[in-house]
Design goal:
Pfam family, one: MerR_1
Shape: elongated
Strand order of the largest sheet: 1-2
Distance between the termini: 36 Å
Organism: Streptomyces piniterrae
Mean pLDDT: 88
Protein name: MerR family transcriptional regulator
Low-confidence stretches: 7-24
Radius of gyration: 21 Å
Largest sheet: 2 strands, antiparallel
Order of helices and strands: HHHEEHHHHHHHH
Strand content: under 5%
Keywords: DNA-binding
GO molecular function: DNA binding; DNA-binding transcription factor activity
Number of strands: 2
Structural class: mainly alpha
């Protein structure tokens, strides 16, 4: 989540408040919404039918106008479906969490991100799972990650961590807290960068949308940078100089 926010690209030159757009305040017809968003008109109509995009403001029996909030939502939906390869039903759940203003801001952010697809869950019948759960819990205690420690029973990321540790153990690779701690410390620093970027967005809804979109969009960035960095380190250690 390290790239700077670009308001012009996010919302165009119209209303940037995140509030519904009144007629004449940046409202556009469907064709222009398609042009500005890069999403085809049939796809936008599909998103409207699937309730991934809120309806526009009806101006005639057959036409509606759309505002900057629709443009922003389209970009989020594209991030989820086209980049994240998230099924439409899952994307709808994520968007519902984003819109749930009954939650406080912290829980709204967490609920929306939790709704994203996660890796396979740990096999509770596998003896390695219990040991992996102990290791993961000890790691959270070492880090003093109190909130994460409180929600281990319902946390999908914690379940992913347990499954990953169990897989390493089954294949004979060491994965105790000493091995995991350097990765966790790096994750702490990344979390600060991530939330600093999210806070650049003005409204709570924009911040939740950004947290979801950037989680999806930056995970491949992190993976690719890690592999590039490993190639550099390998060359330093083992390269022949050719």
């Amino acid at each position: 989540m390290g790239c700077k926010r670009n308001p012009e690209r996010e919302t165009g030159a119209g209303n940037r408040s995140g509030k519904p757009t009144r007629k004449g305040a940046g409202a556009v017809r469907l064709a222009e919404l398609s042009e500005r968003s890069g999403v085809s008109t049939p796809t936008i109509k599909y998103y409207l039918r699937e309730r991934l995009l809120p309806p526009g403001r009806r101006i005639t029996a057959t036409q509606s106008e759309y505002g900057e909030e629709h443009l922003r939502r389209l970009r989020l939906v594209r991030a989820l479906i086209q980049v994240g390869r998230i099924p439409v039903t899952t994307a709808r759940d994520v968007l519902a969490a984003i819109e749930d203003d009954s939650l406080n801001h912290h829980h709204r952010l967490g609920t929306a991100v939790q709704a994203l697809p996660h890796g396979p869950e740990a096999d509770e019948a596998d003896p390695a799972t219990a040991a992996a759960r102990r290791t993961a819990t000890e790691l959270l205690d070492l880090l003093d990650w109190r909130f994460s420690r409180e929600v281990t029973d319902i946390s999908r990321p914690f379940g992913m961590l347990v499954a990953a540790i169990a897989a390493l153990d089954r294949l004979g690779y060491a994965c105790d807290t000493a091995h995991l701690l350097p990765y966790a410390r790096q994750a702490e620093q990344l979390a600060v960068v991530d939330l600093d970027l999210v806070e650049e967005f003005r409204t709570p809804e924009e911040q939740v949308e950004a947290a979801v979109a950037l989680t999806v969009l930056y995970e491949p960035v992190l993976l690719s940078l890690r592999r590039l960095a490993e190639a550099e380190e390998s060359n330093r250690r083992f390269g022949t100089g050719s």
